[in-house]
Amino acid sequence: MKIGIIGSGAVGQALGKGFADLGHEVKLGTRDINQEKVRTWLAKTGPRATAGSFAEAAAFGERLVLATSWSGTESAIKLADKRNMAGKVVIDVTNPLSFAAGGPPTLALGHTDSGGEQVQRWLANSHVVKAFNIIGNPFMVNPQFPGGPPDMFICGNNAEAKQSVTDILTAFGWSTIDLGGIESSRYLEPLAMVWITYGFRTNSWSHAIKLLHK
């Protein structure tokens, strides 16, 4: 499968390498393909990896990953061109974080809206699935914890798209819990804040979330 990654930061790089390690072809979309971090990622990831503009990555991918900082998300989508993303599954890894107050981030959206819903509005002809937003990038692929594999919560409006993302998560070593439509991003993004807040309070980032059943 061909994977287009919109965003060349640590999250996009981690997921891109995960896909390449599973044998998929990956194009990392970036604002500047000559950045040292991009060249380093290409050398580390191997022959299945290439880099290009946001538009080239969006056109290349059969499945797309949106892995941008929230402040740059709308701009990245415009540069990628919604026509290149139409009809495709878009895994939304973003969190609508605001750093305006200084110190730990806060949510820029919540209660009656969410980043996932905003992304779906921007990409009205794509199948957006919120996933990977409640964990740090070092654990996005093959998460190993003493208590067993953690759970990844997802949401989106298209059942086939969510099944596709569930299959990806399974290949990456996750158990998946589907919370329904994209409006459940209103709960997943605050859940990411639980992960983030605990990290800041303890100065430890090696934790994950699991739903326990009796």
Task: Explain what the structure shows.
With 214 residues, the protein is an alpha/beta fold. It has one domain: NAD(P)-binding Rossmann-like Domain (Rossmann fold, 3-Layer(aba) Sandwich), CATH 3.40.50.720. Helices cover 39% and strands 19% of the residues. It is built from eight helices and ten strands. The protein has helices spanning 10-21, 36-45, 54-60, 70-80, 82-85, 115-122, 159-171, 185-202; strands at 2-6, 25-29, 49-52, 63-66, 89-92, 97-98, 106-107, 127-130, 151-156, 175-178. The chain has an eight-stranded mixed beta sheet with strand order 3-2-1-4-5-8-9-10, with helices on both faces. It is globular. The model has no long low-confidence stretch (mean pLDDT 96).
Question: In terms of topology, how is this protein built?
Answer:
Elements: E1 2-6, H1 10-21, E2 25-29, H2 36-45, E3 49-52, H3 54-60, E4 63-66, H4 70-80, H5 82-85, E5 89-92, E6 97-98, E7 106-107, H6 115-122, E8 127-130, E9 151-156, H7 159-171, E10 175-178, H8 185-202
Parallel strand pairs: 1-2, 1-4, 2-3, 4-5, 5-8, 9-10
Antiparallel strand pairs: 6-7, 8-9
